Amino acid sequence: xxxxxxxxxxxxxxxxxxxxxxxxxxxxxxxxxxxxxxxxxxxxxxxxxxxxxxxxxxxxxxxxxxxxxxxxxxxxxxxxxxxxxxxxxxxxxxxxxxxxxxxxxxxxxxxxxxxxxxxxxxxxxxxxxxxxxxxxxxxxxxxxxxxxxxxxxxxxxxxxxxxxxxxxxxxxxxxxxxxxxxxxxxxxxxxxxxxxxxxxxxxxxxxxxxxxxxxxxxxxxxxxxxxxxxxxxxxxxxxxxxxxxxxxx
Amino acid sequence: xxxxxxxxxxxxxxxxxxxxxxxxxxxxxxxxxxxxxxxxxxxxxxxxxxxxxxxxxxxxxxxxxxxxxxxxxxxxxxxxxxxxxxxxxxxxxxxxxxxxxxxxx
Lengths: 249, 105
Prior knowledge:
The structure holds 2 protein chains of 2 kinds.
Chain A: H1 11-42, H2 48-108, H3 121-182, H4 189-220, H5 224-233
Chain B: H1 2-33, H2 50-91, H3 99-102
Helix pairs in contact in B: 1-2
């Protein structure tokens, strides 16, 4: 799960899933309305019992559709903020980890090749201090990498969630389109709508279950909070959780 | 005397190195400061994001503080090395220094 330099791996599939969700939801609603129109059209031919049956099926289809629309609405609200999380996870690597790591060897490489001619207590005290500074630099690299990976775990759960939601929406569109075409005649209409209600119900139940599992994965990333606490609390290279003081005051 | 000049020159160069490092880490600190995330950025689904968000904020604050410490320390190391060079120049030789005084801002 090593991040690339661009967000091809996360940002793109994430946004693509949202494109599918947006257009799919529009089609799903339009097709559902189309089916309701068909019922209206044949109403005069359908007996009261058939109509009641159809109404019941349409209601449960609508309930399932609404359950998905709720998720979609919430997801749409968070699309841009979550994109910023994906971006921030890359920036921990590109803007912090990499430039800090470039400082590492500079801390102990002498600026002037004659520096080793300087010997004695003051020189060894300086070298010891420089080594501690280098250790702190290296530790900052490790910590930046850690937070980036933690955010990538969360980004991954978000991408999976968006992709799964898009799958549910696409599945819905398929079932609705099928019902609309199969229910084109008054004879087939009641059956088509009843089948629709059943298959949409199954699809949505199964789909939302997967969303829950993905949500659980997001919550589980919380387990890494212990890792975060460890990172913040590990004072071996950063005494007292601060940069090591070379100069007091 | 020539030997002393070689050493004080290299100490001043080394001091300059730390001042440059301080500037470089200062720029990184500014970049890190911008990596703030709102709670809404954590999940597109229905889940409690508060703890994730708090944990991140803690970590972010910690990292910025650590990098800020580096800016200060690097600069002080640079100044201390120049101070040492000045002391040697003044004494005209490599004298024994009170390091407690040198490494105190």
